[in-house]
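For this section, I looked closely at the sequence of one protein beside the tokens encoding its backbone, which the following lines show:
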Amino acid sequence: MATNESIVSRRSGYAAGPLRRLSLLGPWLSRAPWVIVGIFLSLGVLATVAVYVWPVSVPWSVYCLLVVGAGLFLEPRFLLVVFIGLFLAMAILGVYLSGIKTATTGSQIVTVVTMLLMLWLSHARAQVGVVGVSGESMLVDMRDRLRAQGELPDLPPTWQAEVALESAYGDGFAGDFVVASRSTDGRTLEVALVDVSGKGREAGTRSLLLSGALGGLLGETHEDGFLQSANNHLLRLRWAEGFATAVHVAVDLESGNFTIGYAGHPAAAQFAAGSGRWRMLTGGRGPLLGVIEEATYPRESGTIRRGDALVLYSDGVIEARDKALVDGIDRMLGRAESFIRTGFEGLAQRLCDQAAAGLGDDRAVVTIWRT
């Protein structure tokens, strides 16, 4: 069994290592908050002494540094204790140094405003039950889990597949995602490309929730019933804007036969090596997911022969505000025609990069081909 060359675009991501390392402080901080309070109050005393002894050399901004540091690692109630201590220290110090150190009032006002901002930030973190930078680390984990589910399984030597995912404006989250599964006997590959309503961060949490559910359905339900099950799941969620589009393909890796169905999603494109041309698949149309109860999703059948390829994509690849949809499809096929002269490898990423929507929408492309 050879390893397929699966490519998942990660250019919109950020390094998660430092955040995850800092997040390890979270459990310790939650167990010993008063120790942290004591540390920052002690630092406040040292800062006060330094400003008093060296009023010209030590700036008032040292208090802002302590305010920001405490705001990153303490809950609101403990943070308030630190801020009260620092405020009293600044007030007393300002009286003693009023004739020596200039601009004390302005510096104190800036520090107090910073305190209010950090209290607001700490309160926002406390509402979701996170401490320190663990909330940011949790978001990074969510993003990475979403992308990991889009990685394709290993395929036989005569099959290749790639996935490319790009979020709108390079955001860390996207409304487009891919789930894939290979049957236990290794014969069938199933891939679903889903486009959740919205884009970027606003659709990221819905994508994560839905990808987990659809990933569980994939391979556990018969291919003919996958979209129906996905539709029922969205209806049960009762999201205010809970619709999605999807394309689902099941490929027999021995014969090359496949079936494909759509839920309000753009039609897939197939390349036929015999004619050397691309064509759009037209059958298997069905309604959006999460809109109509007891909806039916017919499927279209086809065959991927040696040298053929199948391309699934989201609407961000073909849609543009100033152009008709048919123009976007022609544009995509034209790009695909020119790209495949060097082979299908890298085609998914290049179609994402040349999408009609540009950076203004989420884009996703899956290519499956047979050598």
